[in-house]
Amino acid sequence: MRPRHGRRAGRWLVGRLLGAVFVLWAVATLIFFAIRLVPGDPAEAILGGPGSQASAEALDTVRRQYGLDQPLLVQYLAQLARLATGDLGTSYSLRTDVGRLLLDQLPGTIGLALLALVVAWALAIVTAWWATLSGRVASAVSSGLEVVASAVPHFWLASLLILVFSTELGLLPPVSTGTPAGLVLPVVTLAIPVAGFLGQVTRDSLLDAAATPFALSARARGESPSGLFTRHLLRHAALPGLALSGWAFGSLLSGAVVVESVFARPGLGRTLLGAVTLRDIPLVTGVALVSALAYVLVVALGDLSERAVDPRGRAT
Amino acid sequence: MTVLPDLPRGTESARASSGRRTSLGHRARRLPLGPAEWVAAAALLLVVVMAVAPRLLAPGDPLAVSPVDAFSGPSFAHPFGTDESGRGVWTRVVHGAGASLTIGLVATLIGTGLGVALGVLAGLGGRGLAGRATDVGVSRLLEVLFALPGLLLALVVIAFTGPGAVPATIAVGLATAPGYARIVRSQVAAVRRSAMVEAATVLGRHPAVVLWRHVLPNALAPVVVLATLGLGQAVVWASSLSYLGLGSPPPAPEWGAMLSAGRTYLAVAWWMTVFPGLAVVVTAASATVLGRGLARRGRGGTR
Amino acid sequence: MTVTGPTDARRACRDDLVVDRLHVAFDGVTAVDDVSFTLGPGECVALVGESGSGKSVTARALLGLTGGQVTADALRLGEDDLLTLTERRWRRVRGPRIGLVLQDALVSLDPLRPVGREIDDALRLHTRLSPAERRARVLEVLHEVGMPEPEVRRGLRAGELSGGLRQRALIAAALALRPGVVVADEPTTALDAEVQRVVVDRLAALRDGGTAVLAISHDLGVVRRLADRVVIMRDGRVVEQGPTARVLDSPEAEYTRMLIAALPGGAPRGTGLSAPVATGFDPEAPPSGGALGSTAQVTPRPGATQESAPTSPTAPEPVLVAAGLRRAFAVRGGPDRVAVDDVSLTLHAGETLGLVGASGSGKTTTARLLLGLDEPDVGTVELLGEPWSPRRERDRRPLRGALGVVYQDPSSSFDPRFTVGRLLADALSAGRSTRLRPLEAEVGALLGRVGLTADLAQRRPETLSGGQRQRIAVARALAPRPRVIVCDEPVSALDVSVQAQVLDLLDRLQRDEGLAYLFISHDLDVVEHMADRVAVMHEGRIVEDGLTTEVFGTPRHAHTRALLAARP
Hints:
Chain B is an all-alpha fold. Helices cover 67% and strands 0% of the residues of chain B. Chains in contact: A-B, A-C, B-C.
């Protein structure tokens, strides 16, 4: 059994790595062609789009850097080569190397997203558990709350939380201050919509699991409701959520853009926003690639944890 | 962030029922929509009225500046208070419904159209070399699109197209497409493998007939429900883009843009933030509730 | 009334279970009414009935797990009154004093946990044993139920054990605390014959060891083997009860008589199983008379009880011939799994060929190969003398009208959007149209041939009963006027009385139209009743075939013998 497992794990890992490389390549290619599809001078597009009033020498630099007078294929291969060596180019708006910029910003955003994921899961499980143990009314109420939570836009939620906790109650700072207290509101804002959705999925799954024959068997052994939940139902209920962890992380990354703006937190999201507003293509490319990589990683982790909880192998 | 990823059912196999018993009449009854769904439908209807005939509910001019009235709280004259230029927030919310709803609707249409096309292509592939290649190709494409989740994809698109209401619509549409595509693909693949298709084959039906008459209608049946759910999400994303300054430009009374302005004056005029945001939440939540209600109702009838 | 759990899990409870005028209702709707019986140590009482009879609800009431309102004149276990128990007190009764064994271990044990843990749970909840002691007990109880290598198996999940072993684990989980009463709810349904044997033997051993067993089943063979007394239930009430031998051999109630008459076991080929409509005992109650099965006392078809010689004087021509079929499936990281290996069979017009075997023996794959839904790696199939498989679908499509199929669960093979009328119109028009109107008369006639009324054409299949749905499946199969129908477990999902009707229908159609059937079933009694010839499959090969009477009467192959011996 052992060697077979090892080989299978090895094959899975290789498969994932190849998948990640493919995704990165595809993103880079799409952006490459998008630049050239925008009407007008590609050099201008890179530097902020038509009408960006880039200086002539900046345009020349870019033309040389990207080899824009070369045949398309050469440009493409050169770009791929650059990316493969980790050269993501220079952000024209911030005048720094994109790679270094991203490395600085990455931990903050990823940390925020992961923290929010944990909080979202905790909220989802707690509400699902509470709802199934309480009566029908409580269940309906929490169901409604979950629906609203998943429909709330980040910027509004952030504003509301700031209004209540900063302006009125003065408990928490309205902008990021580098202290743990400054983390609370951003994390909660990010977590709530995802918690709403995870809560819905987990609760549906919990109800299904509670109706199964094995749940009945457990109760027939004298299992208490809390014992039933922790020992049996929780695992089953969590499965769909784990499968969705990739989506959840993506949603968190996507939300981080808004949350970082509202709370003035430095991070990938705010960087991307600035880059998009100024149409700084090298920076946009960099952020896109990094976020794609992070997503692929999280999906892989999610699959692993799903496999750990349910080794049966999903029938897709 | 409403819906969209397909929902794998972890305990599906655990519920395999005994072969022996048949339930007489406990099967799929068309469940009526509950009170929550009716409330949601009514709310959506209200928003539609706001969009289509704003003057009915708010006869004022959303763009009329009146500096002397600036920053006054909710009152009889201005139920939602006024903003920094003295414009009535209620009026602007009502008039903004059109913009927000239109963007949401068009984006959803783009998303479902593209998503269904991609999903059907991917789901139909499978047998034979050409089919396999299509499936793999489209699936990889979807994976890539998923790697740039939601708002990120929309932002990247806007980086190339520049800001504005139309680019925002297209961007949001593109961003919602992968979600639909994934679900449609698994539906199509599942129906193709079903006993219904087998029975049709045994009866001697041509594959094209089977596809047209059985596979597509059954696989696409949930799309309408999904689109309802997706509408809420599209509205949220569209207003997010406006909030970030990448959507409808001021002074257009679009909800997200109003919130952006309100952020600055949050401490002095909370109504500038709360009410437009509430409009977004009510629209999105109603769409979700309605969509879920329809989904639950339809689950009895279709598989 | 205090409830005492066992202080020592080893003490066997010797209490009587007394049920007197039990009544269970759900939100005002009565599910069980006026049910009374007693159960003492070392006895086995069987609750028998079809779906909706209330037997499961009654069983759950003994564990306080119905979820409804339970009242009774008395519901006692020994000295303790079960009616007044709070939920917390119930939790001390469930497990140590009353155990529950459900049907299929795959879904009745948590599929994500090792079986050892499931058993351990019961010990952890009710005893004060140390982990080491608990482990020893788990092994002991697994050993008692006959689990080989319990040390190894207890770490496996239910899905990783074979059918027989996981059923043993399921029983072990209920036995760990040595309850005085064990309730077994449909313990053998949907299981392979050999696995059923395992379960029945275990339960019998329990009973002999002094435990009181309440068995719920619709399988009268199991009941005969296990039960001292039997309670026949219908629609929530007791129809008849008494000693097993008396009730089953000389039933007093009409319903019981009908139930027993509907069993195919022992009924020779050609005798009708279902009651005539005139007695009003048809549970599906079609409004008109219809040609619904023959009377229960019909004389056997001429020639049926002898060697199953064909009814026509000339030898019937072969309609479906399979030669040397082989189909293997690639398995990741291992050798191919051979599902069908060198299978040859011949089906003649007007005859029924039964195909039996345990699950996984290759019956379904064979059926798919014969239906042309899959291509064999090696071998050929001929239909009506024409090459059928392997062949391009385009070339053989014109022949498809000669072949029909009836599945176990017809619902999944119907397009959920279609009404019955559209389904049949589609079948009748060879797919050209699904509109009912132009073919209304033909659809009505088709419905009549399967004993249904024309007004059902407006209904959706999901609103009909299981028996009606199966008849519609038969009607659809009949539409193109086929010569051969492949029946894959066509009655396995039906109640006994409904099963009888469908079998009679199939029989009549065969006689009227000269159809040939390939009849696949795991139920040996049904096959013995329906098939002229039978083939036994095991691990992809046909190990024995021949006339039904010969194969069932004097089986030659070891596996056939094992299959037959496993019949309760």
